[in-house]
Structure formats: C-alpha cells, structure tokens
Amino acid sequence: MAKFDANSTFKRLQNRYRLVVMNDDTYEEVVTFKLSRLSVYIVLSTIFVLLTGLTVALIVFTPLKLYIPGYGDVNNTRELRELKIRTDSLEQTVKYQDQYLQSIKSVLQGKVAVKPDTTALKIPKAEKIDD
User: Fold this and answer.
1) Number of structural domains the chain divides into
2) What is the CA radius of gyration of the chain?
3) Sign of dihedral through CA atoms 103, 105, 106, 108?
4) How many helices (H) and strands (E) does the chain have?
C-alpha cells in the first residue's frame, strides 16, 4: 500500500508550469503564464465563492426572491392567513347549516319521532286581591 507523504503532495502543488498561448499560423508566442496547481486551485475557488456570493446577493436584494417557492411578500402572507381563517369559519358555518337543514328535513318527513316535553310544570295559581 502506498504511503501518504504530505511534503511530496505539497511540493507537487507548488511545482511551476508554463502555459503558452501561440499563434497557430506564425508560431509566435502571444501570452505566457507561469502557474502552479496551488495558484490555479486558489483562483478557481475564489471565482466560485465570488459567483456564489453575487448570486445570493442578487436573489436577496432584488425582487427575484419573490419567485422562490415559499418566499413571498409579508403582506401577501398575512392576507393568505386571514383568508384561510375566513374560509375555515365559512366551511364550519355551512356544515352547521347543512346539519340543521337535514334535521328539519328528517323531522318533516317523519323519520325522526319528536318526543313532546312531558315534564309537569308547576304553575302557581293567581292570587286574588280583595279590595
């Protein structure tokens, strides 16, 4: 099994390479870059972090955030909550009305026997006032 040598890995990252851009017709060098693996890694990582930061800033500080699902305007969220509460109360009211109408319908059709109130009421007799 190969041994891991931190010094050789770090040295490989620091080795210098030359990148030459040449004109294909005249073989003239246009640009020359001296690079190392470490510098390329640092540059690419920096570009990635900057692009990510710019994208996040663009979304957070512009109206683009309204297009993200679940992220809306505060007023819209409050209005939606109020509408939900109102809808729930209306559904409950309609349910109670349906139950009421069904019970009246069943009584009128004679499906439910209504028991009369048979409790005896003690009504006091009227007092006679003698003049």
Assistant:
1) 2
2) 43
3) positive
4) 3, 2
| Distance between CA atoms of residues 7 and 16, nearest Å | 16
Question: In this predicted structure, what is the pLDDT of residue 4?
Answer: 65
pLDDT attached to residue 18 = 94
CA dihedral for 25, 26, 31, 37, sign (positive or negative): positive
* Amino acid found at 20: V
Report the pLDDT value the prediction gives residue 90, as an integer from 0 to 100: 95
d(CA 91, CA 101): 15
| Kind of pairing between the strands at 29-36 and 16-22 | antiparallel
**Average pLDDT, 10 consecutive residues per value, the chain (131 residues):** 70 89 93 93 97 95 82 78 94 95 87 74 78 56
Domain extent for 94: 73-109
Answer whether residue 40 is part of any domain. yes
